[in-house]
Amino acid sequence: MRQRDGIAIEQSPDQLEEIQRASERDLAISNIDRGSRQLRDARAALERIRDGSFGVCQECEEEIHPKRLVAIPWASLCIHCQESLDLREAMPTDSTLREAA
Ligand SMILES: [Zn+2]
Fold first, then answer.
1. For residue 42, what are the domain limits?
2. Left (φ > 0), alpha (ψ -120 to 50) or beta: where does 5 sit?
3. 86 located within any domain
4. Assigned domain for 7 exists
5. Residue 47 falls inside a structural domain
6. Which of 59, 55, 81, 58 has its CA nearest to residue 68?
7. Structural domain count, the chain
8. Mean of the pLDDT values across residues 6-21?
């Protein structure tokens, strides 16, 4: 077992290459994540078509703008709810703030 974590990293070309490979691997994994999320969203959209709630915001129950549905057919939130969700996700949560304090 080679120990790599916790040791000061010397900047050698080999190690830089290794770091680059590791981040490429991470990126590939996050791409897979994104892909499966999209698949899940698409499946959920099909469910909503079946139960008749397609095109209705899951948060405020307003109609999702048709233009938005054309751009993102699996959108489950109207643009306003999506924007506030994005904002919430981009912001540190209350517990993170408490931990930092
Ligand atoms: Zn909404």
1. 13-100
2. beta
3. yes
4. no
5. yes
6. 55
7. 1
8. 72
Determine which helix (DSSP H) or strand (DSSP E) holds 98, and give its type and residue range: helix 94-100
Find the 100 Cα to ligand 1 centroid distance in Å: 32
**C-alpha–C-alpha distance, residues 7 and 58, integer Å:** 48
Please give the distance, rounded to the nearest whole angstrom, from the Cα atom of residue 63 to the centre of ligand 1: 8
> What is the per-residue pLDDT across 40-94, written as a single tens digit (0 to 9) for each?
888 999 999 999 999 999 999 999 999 999 998 889 999 999 999 999 988 776 6
Record the pTM: 0.56
Check which CATH number belongs to the domain holding 63 and give it.
Answer: 1.20.120.910
Task: Give the distance (Å) from ligand 1 centre to CA of residue 93.
Answer: 21
Distance 67 CA to ligand 1 centre (A): 15
